[in-house]
Design brief:
This protein is an all-alpha fold. The chain has helices at about 1-20, 35-60, 65-75, 75-95, 130-145, 155-180, 185, 195-215, 225-245, 255-280, 285-300, 310-335, 340-360, 370-400, 410-415, 415-420, and strands at about 95-100, 100-105. It has one domain: Ammonium transporter AmtB like domains (Ammonium transporter fold). Helix 5 packs parallel to helix 8 (about 195-215) and helix 6 runs antiparallel to helix 8. The two termini are about 30 Å apart.
Length: about 425
């Protein structure tokens, strides 16, 4: 009881601190490009919609006893990460660089100096506040993606603490290294248009760490609670992904159109490839398979969206679909209980997309006779895998010491909907 009261008191202090110290905003200036600003407002809303979409996608795939808990694990990130981002997360990701690894936590602490004037270091045509809010949506969905790997066996309070630590200590440094003008990976020439490394690889390797640390479920039920939920969630993700990728052009421009087109065709190719590969292997062409294939295509094109052409996006979608399909079946044989296949879909999809970005990227890819970009992508791949897997595994251990992570056996048997939230679907 004392611990619960302390949690509420800490939250109250944080909310009051933000309320009384937040920056006051000035009027928009003539330096704002209205078309770019309008598009980025819409794109930010698109990306936010992806997290509820993910909750339907995951909620439909899990068994009936864990639908609400699984959906809430995604949905609650909208609240937790939003507050954390304003307080210090954005500053850690995009504040003044400390060694190219992480941002100074005091640069934009509590959104200090994050106003409606553009910041030319990030975008010279939209309000800096809008840039920060757009980046917030990426920070929200990343820990939500991880939850699919340990669905059905984690305590809700423990997950929230892990989410906070992951966002501060894993996501923010990786975003800084990749997207900040002085970031280590960015200065190496590493290309990540919209988050293949920052979002999907980090979530995928963290998911693998979670699945290994928490261990197998007592009973691994493979029955999907609601396949129409999976289809609905996929549609919401596909729709929101246009903001995810095309929005990363940071304006209403040609790059946004290219990213929009590549996003659609890569996902379409991956979905069809998945279905026909399943049939080729003598398996049924399932609705869930079509949805997983579409999402894998979206994941894989994310780092390349603004750097490749339509034909190359077809190749990326196709290759990622086949490799992720292989990896899911390999994972099933390995005995690793990644409940909703987060690592084979997002982790491996992100890896394939990252490497193929270095192969096809205009003027700097392998197909253009350049090797430096590919070389640095390989180095970044290994560093990211080690950092995100090892760091996340350590965080799982730390959280487990502070607040036991795995639910009791009887709670797992009853289902997390009842044992953690006192709610259930009919």
């Amino acid at each position: 009881m004392i611990g619960k009261k302390i949690n509420f008191i800490v939250l109250t202090i944080i909310v009051l601190f933000i309320a009384f110290t937040a920056t006051s905003y000035q009027e928009l200036t003539s330096s704002i490009n209205k078309a770019d600003t309008a598009w980025m407002l819409v794109a930010s809303a698109f990306v936010l919609l992806m997290t509820p979409g993910l909750s339907f996608f995951y909620g439909g795939m899990i068994n009936k006893k864990n639908v609400i808990s699984t959906m809430l694990q995604s949905f609650v990130a909208l609240g937790v990460i939003s507050v954390l981002w304003v307080l210090v997360g954005f500053s850690l990701a995009f504040g003044d660089s400390i060694g190219g690894i992480i941002g100074n936590p005091f640069t934009y602490f509590n959104f200090k100096d994050v106003g409606v004037e553009p910041n030319p270091d990030f975008s010279d045509s939209i309000p800096f506040l809008l840039y920060a809010l757009f980046q917030l949506k990426f920070a929200i969905i990343t820990p939500a993606l991880i939850t699919g790997s340990f669905a059905g066996r984690i305590r809700f309070r423990s997950y929230i603490l892990f989410m906070v630590l992951f966002s501060l200590l894993i996501y923010s440094p990786l975003a800084h290294m990749t997207w900040h003008p002085d970031g280590l990976f960015r200065n190496w020439g590493v290309l990540d248009f919209a988050g293949g490394t920052v979002v999907h690889m980090s979530a995928g390797f963290a998911a693998l760490a979670g699945a290994l640390y928490l261990g197998k479920r007592k009973v691994a039920e493979e029955t999907h609670a609601n396949v129409p939920y999976v289809i609905l969630g996929t549609g919401m993700l596909w729709f929101g992904w246009f903001g995810f990728n095309a929005g990363s052009a940071l304006g209403a421009n040609g790059d946004a159109v290219i990213a929009f087109a590549n996003t659609n065709i890569a996902s379409a190719t991956a979905m069809i490839a998945w279905l026909f590969y399943e049939r080729f292997m003598g398996r049924k062409m399932s609705a869930v398979g079509a949805c997983i294939g579409a999402v894998v295509g979206l994941v894989a094109i994310t780092p390349a969206a603004g750097f490749v052409n339509i034909g190359q996006s077809v190749v990326i979608g196709f290759v990622a679909s086949i490799i992720s399909n292989w990896m899911i079946h390999l994972k099933n044989k390995s005995g690793i209980d990644d409940t909703l296949d987060v690592f084979p879909s997002h982790g491996i999809g992100g890896v394939v997309g990252m490497l193929l970005t270095a192969v096809f990227a205009a003027n700097v890819g392998l197909v253009y006779g350049e090797t430096e970009t590919f070389y640095y992508h390989i180095i970044t791949l290994f560093l990211t895998a080690i950092f995100t897997f090892g760091g996340s595994y350590l965080l799982f251990k730390i959280v487990d010491v502070l607040v036991k992570m795995r639910v009791r056996e009887d709670q797992e048997e009853r289902g997390l909907d009842i044992s953690q939230h006192g709610e259930q679907i009919e």
